[in-house]
Fold this protein.
Amino acid sequence: MSNLISSPAWRALTAHQSAISQRSLRDMFHGDPARFDKFTLQLPGLLLDYSKNLITEETFALLLNLGRQAKLEDWVTRLFSGDKINSSEQRAALHTALRAPSGQVVYMDGKDVMPDVLRVRQHMRDFCDGVRHGTLRGYSGKPFHDIVNIGIGGSALGPRMACSALKPYGNVNLNVHFVSNVDATDLVETLKQCSVDTTLFIISSKTFTTQETLLNAHSARAWLVKRLGEHAVAQHFVAVSANPAAASRFGIDLDHVFELWDWVGGRYSMWSATGLPIALYLGMDNFERMLAGAHSMDRHFQEAPLQQNMPVILGLLGIWHTNFCGASAQAILPYDQYLQYFPAYLQQLEMESNGKRADREGQEIDYATQIVLWGEPGTNGQHSFYQLIHQGTQHIPVDFLAPIASHNPLGEHHALLLANCFAQSEALMLGKAAAEARAELEAQGLQGTQLEALLPYKIFPGNHSSNTLLFDMLDPYTLGMLIALYEHKVFVQSVVWNINPFDQWGVELGKQLADKLLPELQNKQTHAHDASTTNLIKHTLARQIKI
């Protein structure tokens, strides 16, 4: 048994969960008129209501004890001080420095990293101003209208999500596209929308060796060269990379290589030059407002006491549901179409960070870590998977996110959207008891065997936990706050679980095997594999599929 499971704080929570497991949220609200006030936290422009979680004041106190037992406050200090807390790779995780303002000092290995951060930020500003104002143009002398970001994972998910979320702030003269899938369809269908004379490509790869990204990049390069010639490459391609030499060999002007550092993890990199497509689309001022929003959450995470700390509260509630209430999945449900990619972004952030089975000492873990995260925006999900959440057999906690004000003038739409958001959280909490369902059916004129036959299908157990995050409006500052909130939530959970959230060795195995399989498909030869893989290759080759 691990030290965590046998610890006093863990044992106390296990006993407590058993003691309150038969209580209902409905009764908790009836018994405590002040429950909302006790379990709500408000920051400027952002409110977290966590009162609809199956917790009591004692639960909350015990969860805080678990955080203190894990020395959470010390780990927060280490995160911001440049310690090499990415222990398996011996790196710091200083993504917070990327959104720090001018004048702040952030040390790593005795060196202030902020001069480099601010230098690259200025490089981004100069380049973005040139593209947006038309002083930087393509080979044919025409201004750029299409930006194609070629990257994968953190080099695509964050920028794509942010550009979608902040579309009302985007430049109407620029179209931003994201190519990440090595399936040629992704690139081909994107290029159909672009004119070669007015397309700018961003190759985003820290190492400039990522297989999927480089194949897409070379195919895009061939598309351009076929139409404009080799000399056009330097004016139509830029790179975001820590490997300028490789970018230069590709044909990219070194003045158009935007620097990254090894302490910037992929899924935390949108605050760096990886955010170049965001800055191009929104303008550097709006990109910096997003940085400022994230920095405000950084300050809150550093300075607020644990019991009033929003990332800490979200993180500990996640621990409660995962390790003590048996949840195996969580739904992220933004009631804002602009946040359509937010669940997908959080999938990488959370599951790649904390989907681990070895602790910081390399010991195999005997407790649950990251649960499956998924979601869909707005009322769409209500007509698909909400059925599972309401009446399925699994415990699935939910985060609802919604803006109080809309960018769009159709007020009746937004009122109905918010009504649905609040109604869903209320329905998940209250459910519908057998007596209520029976009375409803009787009011509809049903009785006898007809009523009894239908009754079981009309009962909702309720007692489903949810958080609601309300924000004034989805603007660059607020989006920065939201992203940083979830980043720090992930960190809180990693500290309690004693795992490293900043590596991702699980990404490597499949890619290593793909490297071995690729020559077999290209050369039409098979080598030793398991029977299934061998026969899949043989079947493919026998069908004369061109690879």
